[in-house]
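tl;dr need the bound structure. longer version: we got a ligand (calcium ion) that a collaborator sent over and nobodys looked at where it sits. i said id run it. heres the input, straight from their email, havent touched it
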Amino acid sequence: MTYPPPSDAESQQWFSRYDRGQKGHLTLDEMHNLLNDRGSSLWAPFDQDTAFKLARSFAPPGTQGPPTLTPPALNALWQYLSQWHSIFLSFDADRSGRISHSELQNALAAFGIRLPPRLIHLMIHKQNLMQGKIQKGRRLPDDIDFPSFIDLCITCKQATDTFGRLDTSQSGSIQLYWENYMDIIVSGR
Ligand SMILES: [Ca+2]
């Protein structure tokens, strides 16, 4: 089941409903609530961290402080989620509603990102750990849901962009001073 992008009228209706005080923009919390309410029949809830990454990606450039979303930015976000949900479904080969190790490996390879199985396992484990989806006494999930898939793809894209920016000769390797490395870790860019 795919999620069609909303019409302009529908999108405006949702925006008005969640824009408390009719400010003309959605705060991070308002956008987070809207995201989970609208997608409740299709995907697991987005956690706060992934919602923040999405809001930051679609907030107007140069936004200082917490990201906010205008109506056009909300439309762009829904288009983005709709496209990614289709991609998610296309790589969910066994139609389980989740992405397994091999399905993730295929998806990343299709995006030009080739990673060893150990790293794929680690990323899946870390996603489930970060999002509190590992419960005490239960076997660790070895697959991820749609919000985790989105989060992981955003992380991979940021890492690939950062590496590409530093690999000016496109040799596939970079040399980093400690300070530059710390700058990347701390700034998250
Ligand atoms: Ca699957």
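gonna send this back to them w/ a short note. The first helix runs from residue 8 to 18.
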